[in-house]
User: What shape does this take?
Amino acid sequence: MLGRILALGRYTAVLAVIGSFIGSIILYLYGVYDLILIVQDISTYWRDPDALQKFLITDMIGRIDIFLLGTVLYIIAVGLYELFIKDDLPLPAWIQIHDLDDLKEKLITGVIVVLAVYFLSQALKPEAQEYLLDQGLAIGVIIAALTFYLRVKGGHEKSGSK
Assistant: This one.
């Protein structure tokens, strides 16, 4: 009886799937809304090509992380669905998730990319220059630790399968 309840309990993961999916949609919609605001702001820089270029580069890079985070949430939703509900979604091979390690790898990789883009957007802001080294070091340590984890985890799996 308890085993049956636990087996059915896996469907509670649907809550996390729905929450992650809704979160990704919200971030995508917010990203589009934010880009519309950028388009409206372009008119203030139209006469100064250098200022326009700087504005576009800094603002566009700063907005990319919104879409990247939305993508990470989408991948989490797909991964949890494949792990707990049904493992045969018609998806490209790069997004297919067959075990928890696949999901962790995709999540960690997504976090690394989001952190790198965030740092780049901060590096382009003159007002952030005072704390840029501190932020860069902190983000670098996090990225190094996550990369180390991925390499060690991948190395153990490969050596363990021989």
